[in-house]
Amino acid sequence: MTGVVLTSGRTRAWVERGALHWIQGRTTVVVPGTGIRRVETAGRSLTVFLVEYAGDGSSMTVTHRNQDMISALGAEIDAIIGDAGRSGKRRQPQRHTVPAWPVRVLSRMRDRVLYGNPWWRRALWYTVLGPPLAVLLPPSPILGIAAWLLLPAGLGLLWLWVKMTDLDTRWVMRRRGVTVRARYEFDLCTSNDSGISYIVHFRTLDGQEMAEPISSRENHDEITYDPRDPSHIYARTTRGAWLGNAVPAFLIAGIWGVFFCVPAINWLIELMSLPF
Q1: Are 173 and 236 in contact (CB under 8 A)?
Q2: Which residues contact 87 (CB under 8 A, 6 or more apart)?
Q3: Residue 155: which of 23, 254, 16, 9 has the closest Cα?
Q4: 224 contacts 177 by C-beta, under 8 angstroms
Q5: 3-state class of 47 per DSSP?
């Protein structure tokens, strides 16, 4: 059972599962009840005295403005003194120190680059090789640096426009989608919670019966699904309706994506126009 969590500066202390958990800065110490000799509370101060094997220090002290919390935590610690747990075995204390935050950040970045999404590795190559190429290649260094800085933002905004208009889904469905007749059923249970207002029922080419949620309805009671993943469905809208969404989305995100990509396009044109 968990109870009082005492927080004072960079120190946190609480009792959980028959052990005292003590965090001070980057060091965490977990001392079982058998590793605690006694606990003393005096006003706003709490001191825990440890047995010899429990750690390098013989005691740990914390102060807090609330004397009631000090007393409550002291009582919880006193209740587990000498407790060996359900197994009856004497558990050894555990001490763990985490690296400083710059080391942790660099370690996480390393793991993401080595084992994460491939785009992390591509971003690393872009970051490392981009500035030297932008400065050393014959086109203007100022134009090269501007292109290097603005190109990721431009591509990101264009990707946002593609997502806002479902252009990627339309492209996949146009290449390999299968259109079949479907039966739409209004969904009263989820329409108010998640915006899904229909359940569409259809049969795949191999005879599999499907029932999937969808937020829009096809005028001709048809559905297009991806044969590689029949749960991926799409209700095709008219070209006019799609343009009604695509044009405002382009004004919001797409036009800025094109604007930020212009320096990179100009840089490539100047590079390709060189004699070599």
Answers
A1: yes
A2: none
A3: 254
A4: yes
A5: strand
